[in-house]
Each structure stands twice: as structure tokens, then as C-alpha cells.
Amino acid sequence: MKINILLAAMGAVLGAGTARAQTALLPDTLEYARAKAYGKDFGEADRILTLYNARTSRLDGLRLQAQVLYWAQDFKRAAAVHEQALAAFPSVPALRLDYARLLVEQNQLDRAKDQLAVYETQDSARAESGLLLALISYKQLRLDAARKSLAAVLRRYPGNAAATALLQDIGNTTLPYFRVGSRYLHDDQPLRALTYEAEATLFRSWLVAPTVQLQANSFSLPDDRSASYWLQVGNKFTFLPLGLTVSTTGGLFQYSQNSGGSLATGNLLLTKTLGSTLALDVQAARQPYQAVLASARQPVMERLQALAVRYTKGDKWLGKAGVEQRSYGDDNPAYSTYAWLLAPVLTRPTVVLKAGYAFSYASAERSTYTPTRSLSDVVLNGGPVPGAYVPYFTPRHQLVNAMLLSLKLWPQKKVSVAARGSYGVQGRADAPYLYLDKALNNELYLATGFARQDYHPVEVQGEVALKASPSLTVAATYGYSSLIFYNRHAFDLQFRYHLNREKNR
Q1: Phi, psi for 454 (deg, rounded to 5)
Q2: Residue pLDDT, tens place only, 407-440
Q3: φ/ψ (deg, to 5) at 439
Q4: Is 401 exposed, middle or buried (0-12, 13-18, 19+ CB in 10 A)?
């Protein structure tokens, strides 16, 4: 949802209204504080305004400090200053509108509705209150109420851009959504794969939001070909009073060579909001694993258990930290832990640049690195003993520290360009190797050893997206990965289509 964009647009309107409402020059103290705020020295502006508002109770001083604290993202203190201003000036409608906007952005929707209810009795002529009420209803999944509020705004202000955009966003959320695409990837194992995907989603209510996905894979191996098919059906349940969403998915997975029939898959994801910036994800899944040559030849099912905390602040700061356990039915679980954070570097209407840092650690109980030459061949002919991971990859004390970069551009209204990448400034792992050894009874065997390997993993992805129509978006993506056991190139082409309500009337 484009909620934060809409809030920013409403904030700009409110700010312009505030400037026009000033009928007299502010004292030098306020001018100084305002200059500091415009220069992004929010700490100094807040210090001056705290002293100023402690000596006198003026509407302009309190509103300016609330705005400064909002810009500084100190939302708790901004709310406290709003409360102070409302206690001193309860009959000023603009104060309630300011405060309601802050509360909506912090997802304190019921408190925002209370403020707007009072505001409507004082001044119902402005579009901002109707937009905020519609936004609250949208967030609470009361879509008919949201449309009703927007219709009232558009009757009074025909062509209002924010109302029109929110109405379109509601349509995109509730009307059927289709996605079809293909992906081609190849790596130096060597493995080549061509994937076709189709997905359809529909939103009806907090209880009914189904999704259907179909995936077909064709693998080209050094000495063979294989294919697999995966059908999934799921639904998303949203419990707003609890701040909880539950996504459930069940499916069937089939290898073309598997005469044993289809294999059941499933996924359960619980997401709990923890305040305005944090969310907790708990996941359990049974899913196909198809990342190495052996897993493209025979069915390998992966059990995933994951726990993660996500951080989002104003669509600018993004982060995540979590732990995962992956197992494959052979008492050899692989564990991993990770954390990453992206911070804004440059934010403009046509460009957003973020940079950050990532850490990850992964290891398994034992290695699945298996010789690809037989013992007799090595004994008779000598030479090195090559190997491959069978039937899945196992990390061993794999540690990576990486720098992150994310860039998004809008060179034209209907075109967006996105790129992201990571570079491992430090990467190390215990890499397996195989050698011929002799047991105490003089019997020869192929043994596995480990040697510390330093490397610099690299991952890069770029995307160009074209909004061909209000309903259709076409996106082309290229990705490159240089990891510890393969280098991979991937090419994607996606078509995303939202059914247009107007075309079906």
C-alpha cells in the first residue's frame, strides 16, 4: 500500500496551510528555531523550543516543536507536545488534524479516529480529514467505509489526487491480481534451469484472501534432463485487533522421474506487529530443495523452521535479524543466523539510495560433500578426488560480513530502475576436500578433510519495470551470485496484472 506516500502528501498540504495561517512575524527565537529545523539541526531546534515553550504557551511554538520532533522521528515526544498543545488550545481544529496524522502514521488508529471525530465537529470542510478517515478504514480492512469516505472527498473536491490514488490502491488490493513469468539460470556446477511461474490472488475480507501458485521447472544437467512441478494453494488471515496475520499454504510437488507420486508441501507463517517499527515472523515449512545437481535428479524435501524480527522506520530504515534451521530427514540439520540493516543515504522524489551492513553465520552437523570418482578408480588411476554436495549443500563454520547498497530510480513516470548488491568484505568457511587414506587394518578409503577458505561473496541484482497501463506492469531482472560453491547468473521476466474494476462494469 502507498500509505506513507499519501501521508507525506497530506503532510505537505497541512504544512502549506500552516504557513498561510501565520498572520504575524514570529519572535526571533522561533525564527532561529525554524532556521535550525530547516537546516536539519533538529537537536538545537528542539532545545530552543523546549526552553521557549516552558516560558510561554503559544500555539505557533508548540506546533513548531511538534513538527521538529516529527522530522527528527521522535514520535513519542511529538505526541506529548501535541497533547500539550491540545490541552492549551482545544478549539483549534488544525491541531487535531496534525495529531491525527501522526497517530495514523504510528498505527494508533482508534486514537486518531477520536481526534478526527472532534475535528469534524469543528471544521469538516477540509479534504485532509476525509482522507485520513479513509486511510484508517483501509488499514482496518473496512474497505466499503474507506470508499465511502473517499467518495465524499471527491464530491467536494473533484479530481483530488490523494483521494484518487488511495481509491486506486484499494482497487489494486481487492481486485484479482495475476502474475506470470519465467526465469532462466545457470551456474558452474554446472546446472541450468528454466522456470515458469503463474500466481493469482484475491482479497475479499480479513478471513478470505486466497492465493494459487503454479511452478514448472526444467533442469539441464551434465548427463541428463529432468523436470518438476509444484502447485500451492494458500490463504491469508488478518486479525487486526491482535496485530497478527497468519498465512497458510498447502501444496503438491512432483518430479518427472519420481514414480512414487506427489509429495506434500506446506508453509505456515505468523507475523505479529510489535509497535510501529517492529514485526515478529515465525515460520515452519516443508518445501522442495532444488539448488544442487543431485537435488535436480531426485526429490529432496527441506524442513524449515525460522524466527525473525523485522525493522521498518518510515520506509527509509529497513532491517532484519533471525535464526533458521533446515533439515532433510537425515539427522543432519543446518543452522544459520543473520542480521542486516539498510539506512537512507539519499532520498529524493526520483531517487532513493540506501546503504547498510549484513552479517551471517551458518554450519551443519556434518558435510554432504561426496566423491564423484569411485574408490577403485582413484586407487587404480590416482589423481585428485573431485566431489559434489549430495543431495544438498552443507555449510561448515561459514561466516560473512558484507556491505549492502540499494538504489531505486524513477527516470520517467512509468519507468523504475532498481539495483541492490552486497559485497563480502570478510568471508570464511571450512571448505571440504577429499583424499585417499588408509585405515588401521590397511584398508583404503576416501576421507574428507577441511581447510579454511577465505573468499568474498558477491550478490548483485538489477530490475527495470515499466507500468505499461494502470493494470499491467512488466519487469525484467538480472541477478548474479558468486558464493562459496558456485557462480550463478539468473534472468527473470515478469508480467503483473491487476484486474481493472472500470473495465468490468
Answers
A1: -100, 135
A2: 999 998 899 999 999 999 999 999 999 999 999 8
A3: -80, 175
A4: middle
Q: How far is CA 332 from the centre of its chain?
A: 30
Query: From start to end of 221-262, where are the E strands?
Result: 225-239, 244-255
Of residues 153, 171, 173, 175, the one with CA closest to residue 162: 153
Of the candidates 229, 197, 260, which has an alpha carbon nearest to the alpha carbon of residue 475? Answer: 197
Rounded to two decimals, the pTM is 0.77
Q: Collect all residues with Cβ–Cβ distance below 8 Å to 299 and sequence separation of at least 6.
A: 253, 255, 258, 263, 288
The residues near 483 (Cβ < 8 Å, ≥ 6 apart) are 457, 459
Q: For residue 151, which of 129, 168, 167 has the smallest C-alpha distance?
A: 167
Q: pLDDT tens, 96-125?
A: 888 998 888 888 888 898 888 888 888 766
Backbone angles phi, psi at 383, to 5 degrees: 90, 175
3-state secondary structure 376-430: HHHHHHCCCCCEEECCCCCCCCEEEEEEEEEEEEEEECCEEEEEEEEEEEEEEEE
Q: Which residues contact 132 (CB under 8 A, 6 or more apart)?
A: 10, 97, 100, 101, 104, 112, 116
Of all helices (H) and strands (E), which one includes residue 42? Answer: helix 42-55
Across 182-194, b (16+ Cβ under 10 Å) vs e yields ebebbbebebbbb
Cα angle value 243/249/252 (rounded, 5°): 175
- List, in order, residues 6 or more apart from 189 with CB less than 8 Å away: 292, 293, 388, 485, 486
Closest C-alpha to 119, from 147, 91, 145, 140 = 91
Mean pLDDT of 243-266: 88
Which residues on adjacent β-strands are paired with residue 252? 231, 264
Cell of 380: 587404480
Beta bridge partners of 450: 432
Task: Report d(CA 319, CA 311) in Å as an integer.
Answer: 5
Eight-state DSSP code of residue 90: T
* C-alpha cell recorded at residue 486: 558456485
Name the CA radius of gyration of the chain, rounded.
28
Is residue 36 within 8 Å of residue 44, measured between CB atoms?
A: yes
Give yes or no for residue 21 having a pLDDT over 60.
no
Query: What are 67-71's contacts with CB under 8 Å, separation 24+?
Result: 67/15, 67/37, 67/98, 68/33, 68/37, 68/42, 69/42, 70/102, 71/37, 71/40, 71/42
302: left (phi over 0), alpha (psi -120 to 50) or beta: beta
Q: How many residues does the chain have?
A: 505
